[in-house]
Structure formats: structure tokens, C-alpha cells
Amino acid sequence: MLRKIKDSIFWFRNVKKQITFLKRNIDHLKSAGESKKLDTFIIFIEPWKINPLPMYAITLAMLLKIRGLKVSFLISEAKFDTDHFIQLFGIKFLLNFLKNYIPTYTLKDFHANSERQIKSTDHQSFKQLAFANAVHLMRGENDSLEFKKNVERNYKIYIENFSSIISFMDLNKDACYIIPGGIFGITGLLLDYAKKINTKYYTYDSGFGVLLTSVNGVAAHCKDIPISLDLILKQNDPTGINFAIEQAKIELDKRLNGNDISKTQIQSYAESLNFNQVGVLIPLNSPWDSATLRIDYLFESYRDWLLQTVDLVLKNSYFNVTIRQHPDERHWYGKSNLDFGVILKEIYGDNSRIQYIACTDKVNTYALLDKAKFVICFSSTFGIEASLRNKKVIVCSDVYYSELDFVTKPKNKIELARIISEFDTYEGLNSEQEKHAMLCYYLGQKCNWLYSIFTPTANDFDRWTKKDLKELLEDNSVEILLDSVEYNLPVSYINHKKMLKNRISYLHKNI
Q1: Are strands 279-283 and 321-324 parallel, antiparallel or unpaired?
Q2: β-pairing, 321-324 with 354-357?
Q3: 77-104 pLDDT, tens per residue?
Q4: Which of 242, 273, 447, 448 could form a disulfide with 495 if both were Cys (CB 3.0 to 4.6 A apart)?
Q5: Environment class of residue 243 by beta-carbon count within 10 Å: exposed (0-12), middle (13-18) or buried (19+)?
Q6: What does 40-82 look like in DSSP terms, one character per residue?
Q7: What is the mean pLDDT of the chain?
Q8: What ranges in 413-490 are assigned the alpha helix state H?
């Protein structure tokens, strides 16, 4: 009860801040005028875990409107979140300020207009999304009754709302849908159906001071990177490619030495505990993180992948298998409720061929990599780094680099077992594969993150609501975001072009 009261106070304080912001900036909408462009951008809003994301979506619509684009709001009233009605009341109250400038639609109003029947493929999407939302909410999958009830509840919500989604989107096929996340709540259904009817969409996600966006799927899945990679390769500009490779090498060196911006590793390379018999190295992600959800193709879930893969290594090789828990799980924001160390011990006991290295162990993952025979990964960027360190990398998911030529992606479990059993030696990447890996790493680590004050996180919300809309429009990061939305271009590609332009300009001034 106390937590609910605290959440409600926090929510209405944010509503009050947004009201002040809207009143201060409403005149900018009055002078925006009618859009001369035909494209319509539909901003999706739903209650979102008591955080300021709805306020962010409202402000993003205002920025696009001032920029001269045609925008509207689409609200979902599906009850996925706690304190749902309190949040919904605040959202509708805020949108009322903009009713004369930006139209608002509510999904439930389109329920009766749908004639399309729910298909078996739709039900499959419902099941996947229901499971993914439960995993995310409970920070990992489990066999508890609470988890199963959560999945069932989510599934019912999808069935109840799907006809409204297809009805609305069939009427608005030519629009571009701007969707937060791409998994949570109704957003996954919007994304799935947009793909089916070939409708444009744009997703976004955030951390403190940073945005992730995508024109090609769930924002956290980073599937814009192959698009940007293709654009760079097609241009075949030696200056741009050499610059990107140079930046990739610098960033990789920082990661190896623990000097990167995220400082993921708990221990330096030089001071890491030593393991001589690493064998097959399996680097883990946070199993509840959006980056790992809904990219399965070979296994039913993340837990299923790990347990079956360990079993395949034990049965099809003489190698040890070393599982490295993601170092970020030592922090509250990365911690999961799945303890794979305990789970593996329950299944295999004290099997000497299994080494589980916890997130708090004084071990540097790159020191393990040097001793490893090869790597099997799911969605970790570590897979790219391992390939650049001359290790064979097997990818068992649809992670953004899984189809690129510097990793191996088995078609099925039989092929995975064969690859494991036949491994002998590995000669490393050829020059073309290494170039692709370097460019992919550069785009993912240097270009795909948009560092900005304008994010939906609470701390950033407190900062940007003190600013004027015109001031936000002049911010470089906001300009990149709006360019990406309007022109349907990956942020990673825009960032690359800007960084390259700045480097060339610097060299001209200093030669």
C-alpha cells in the first residue's frame, strides 16, 4: 500500500511538471501551421511502469509537429501495468491540452470495425509476447504458479485487443507508427502487425542519458546495424571505412582494458584470476533484458538455450564448458532472478567439466576468451569481440549480427551438435570478414547509442522539462533523433556520417 501511494505521488508530480512544460510551450504549436507533407506519424502511448515515457511521447509529437510533420496520438487502455487507471487518467488529462493541435485516437474505439479473424500465427505471437512480458516483469523465467498466471493474463489481454489493432492499422497503413520498446504491453502486437502489412514503424528505448532507436524491429535488438553496414559497404568509401575500423580498434582496446564508458568488467585483464581449461566459453546476458527476448529460433527460451547447449557440449566433445555470468548482474539494474550456477549444480552436481563464473568473481571475461577453444553465444556483443580475437563464434539466436559472415549460425540442433563435435582448429577471419566485424562493432558501440538529455528516464525528464521546445529542437542529439524519424534512417548511420564529417573537417584545419 505504501509503495502504491509513493508511486502515485511520483506519477502526479511528473504530470504536474509536464503540465507546466505544456503551458510554457503551447504557443509553439499555435504557430506551427498545417503540415505540407503527406506522411503521418502516429505516436503510440500507454501506461508504462509509472515512468515519464508517456510525457516523452507527447513531447516528441510536439517536436515533430513544430518541425512541420503531420502527427496524431494512439492510446491503448489495455491493463498491463500496475496503477493503470491512475496513469491513464494523467495521460488523458495531458492530451486534453493538445486536442486543438494534435488529434487523439483510442484503440478500443476501433474494435467493432475489424473483420479479420485471428489466425494460428497470431496466437503464436500472443504466446511469445505473453511469455516475454512475464520474463521481463519477473526478471527471468521460472516454473512458479505466479509466472504461469502472468503469462495467461498477458495472453488474454492480447486476444482482447488484437482486433482493435488490426482494425486501426488497416485503416492507417500509410502512416509511420512511433512505438516505445517493441515488446512491453501492446507495443509487441503493433510491431508484429506493422511487419505483416508492411507498414513503417519506429521504435525507441532508453537508459539514463542515452537512447536506442530502430527502423527495423525492437529498439533493443539493434537490427538497424546491418542496414547501416550495407549503406557503408555500398558507398565503398575508403576514407569512411578506414575511419570506422580505426574507431573500432580503439573501442575494442578500451573494452579489453576496462577503460570503456560502461566499465563492464569487474576485474582488469592483467589481474584476472586464471583459468587454463576454459574449453567452450558461453558468455551470458541478463536473461530478462529486452535484448534477449523474442530472438529465439533454435530453442524455446534463454534458459532452454543454455541448458541444452551445455548438454550438447558435454555429449559431443571432450571440452570443458565455462559459463560466464554477465558482469552487469552485479548491479541492481542488471540483476536477474535466475541463478544458473544453482540450476546447473542441481542438474550436473560437481561435474568437473563445468565451470560457472559468477558476476562477482574477480575474472576478466577477455582473459577467459584467450584460453577458450571457441565461443557459443546468444545475444552478446561479446560474440563480435570474440571473432575479432580469432575465436570461432557460434550464434544460437537471431541477434543482429547472426546473419553476417564472421559468425556461424547453425540451422538446427543437429547441425549445432555437429559443429561442436567436429571442431579441431580455427584459422580466424579472412580480411573481408574482419572488415565486416570491425564495421559492425563500430556501428554498435560508437554509433548506435544516441547520448542525449532528451530521454524518457526520470532524471532526464526533470532536466528537459525545464527547457523550451525551440531549445530542444536546436540540440544536436534531438536533431539526429528527428532526422532519423522523419527520413526513416538508422541513428547509427546518421551518427557515422556526422562523426566522419567532423574528422575530415578537423584534419583539413590541422594539416
Answers
A1: parallel
A2: parallel
A3: 998 876 788 999 999 999 999 999 999 9
A4: 447
A5: middle
A6: EEEEEE---TTSSHHHHHHHHHHHHHHTT-EEEEEE-----ST
A7: 93
A8: 413-422, 431-442, 458-464, 469-473, 476-487
